[in-house]
Amino acid sequence: MKKFTRRSLLLGTGASVGVAVSRYLSNEDIPHGRWFPSPEDTPSKLVLNDASLLNPTKVAKHLVVNDDPGEKLVTALRSELNEARAARRPFVASAARHSMGAQSLAEGGSAVTLDQNWLEPDTASGTYRVAAGMRWNQVIAQLDKIGFSPKVMQSNNDFGVASTFSVNAHGWPVPWSAFGSTVRSLRLMQADGEMVTCSRSENADLFAMTMGGYGLTGVITDLDVEMERNARLTPTYEIMPAKSFGIKLVAALKDDPKIQMAYGRLDVTIDGFFDEALMITYTPSADQQELPPASGSGFLSKAAGHVFRRQVGSDRVKGLRWYVEKHIGPRVAPEAVTRNSLINEPVATLDDGDPKRTDILHEYFVSPYRFAGFIEACQDVIPSSYQQLLNITLRYVDTDKDSVLAYAGEPRIAAVMLFSQEMSVRGEHDMARMTQALIDRTLELDGSYYLPYRLHATDAQFQRAYSRAPEFVSRKRALDPGLVFRNALWDRYMAKL
């Protein structure tokens, strides 16, 4: 059997396919990027990739840092940064590299992976000081022991804390905005190696740029973050027309301020595509005594994973999954679960495992009152593509009052979509076409899209969605005139501004 490499999957495997690709597609034809050689095809062992598996990138140097955020860490980072600056190569610090458009990579650069386990809680102030590279599963484990929980974090626990701040991710907890809204301060190493403290009262402009700034302002070493009391929560399930979900969720949050977590799901079958929604809300249970330790992926999650993966190419399985989620899940799910257990779920639970396909995320933000128009846009655009939509999760994000590159200038419904994409030129072109169509329709609704994913948006779409980007770029150039902190997101959209 012929062995498939990443290159053969992307560029075709037969001679006739290869001729067609070379004749009709050049690097410039690939949507806003180019194919890199796979690790198997390059002599260099210093090749890193991200969660998309579509960005194998040669780097000049890769360093994994485990030190606590003290003088030893600062000295090591400063040394690496000075070396990169002297060599005129980019410098990128990241954690798990879950972004999908090389936002955490720079070709020929120095790459630092932060992988730490250091946290100091302050129960009196309701905060914890945490190392930049600490993963959320580690944070949950430590806070759980003292009866606390992250106030806001992503819905999966694999990511680094500073990375969450750098992309300003959000999750299920309500009624807050994204994670950045719960960060009180941070320490940042700037391009010249200087360490500064940033907060809403100290270096406030730099704090606002770094929140959702994708590492372009410097390297975060540690953060001071708000935490919440852990609690046993009881779920409530409600089925409704998909178009009414936005207004229904806002009304639920207004009517019941005790709701701590909330999300929604939509039917993704072809016959019922985005017609029906399931809203799940969690409120504190009457019994808050002797909370059990935070659990990980339970039997239901693992069993659901097997069904989840069989949805590719099978509307019957998608229908089965929706039936289980809508009717069986509420009956067999635990009557109560702790807040920490709800958020303590790894991405690996739903891992792909198919070398010919990759999972690609999209995310769009629209006003709750215009959500019905977004449903119509998705119904028009997605079914006509080659893409396999496996899941959509709906969340509430309050107004972002801080970050320069904000995606929620008002309260929004966030629509997080997971696609299974064929790893081929056809698959990538079709994904770019579909993405641009969805962004156009979302912008028409005065909405926005999220930046950590594939860089398929056009320049005009990026600038319309992120109108303060020129301001961000101007201030970044003043802070970092040598452009030592850069990545594919900068190169693709910002370098030309």
CATH superfamily of the domain at 232-463: FAD-linked oxidases, C-terminal domain
Report the CATH C-level class of the domain at 232-463.
Answer: Alpha Beta
For the termini, the CA-CA separation is 49 Å
Within the largest sheet, what's the order of strands?
A: 15-12-14-13-17-18-16-19
- Gyration radius, to the nearest Å? 22 Å
What is the 3D shape?
Answer: globular
The CATH architecture designation of the domain at 232-463 is: 3-Layer(aba) Sandwich
Task: Name some characteristics of this structure.
497 residues, 6-stranded antiparallel sheet, 19 strands, 8-stranded antiparallel sheet, Vanillyl-alcohol Oxidase, Chain A, domain 3, 15 helices, alpha+beta, disordered N terminus, 23% strand
Description:
- The protein is globular, with a radius of gyration of 22 Å.
- β1 and β2 form a beta hairpin.
- The relative contact order is 0.13.
- The chain is α+β, with helices and mostly antiparallel strands and 497 residues long.
- Helices cover 32% and strands 23% of the residues.
- It has 15 helices and 19 strands.
- It has a domain at 232-463: Vanillyl-alcohol Oxidase, Chain A, domain 3.
Write the layout of secondary structure elements.
Elements: H1 6-11, H2 15-24, E1 47-48, E2 57-58, E3 61-65, H3 71-87, E4 91-94, E5 110-114, E6 119-122, E7 127-131, H4 136-145, E8 148-150, H5 161-167, E9 183-189, E10 195-199, H6 204-210, E11 219-229, E12 232-241, H7 245-255, E13 261-266, E14 276-284, H8 299-309, H9 315-332, E15 337-338, H10 339-343, E16 357-366, H11 371-381, E17 388-397, E18 412-422, H12 425-444, E19 448-449, H13 459-465, H14 469-479, H15 488-494
Parallel strand pairs: 3-5, 4-5
Antiparallel strand pairs: 1-2, 6-7, 7-11, 8-11, 9-10, 9-11, 12-14, 12-15, 13-14, 13-17, 16-18, 16-19, 17-18
Helix pairs in contact: 11-12
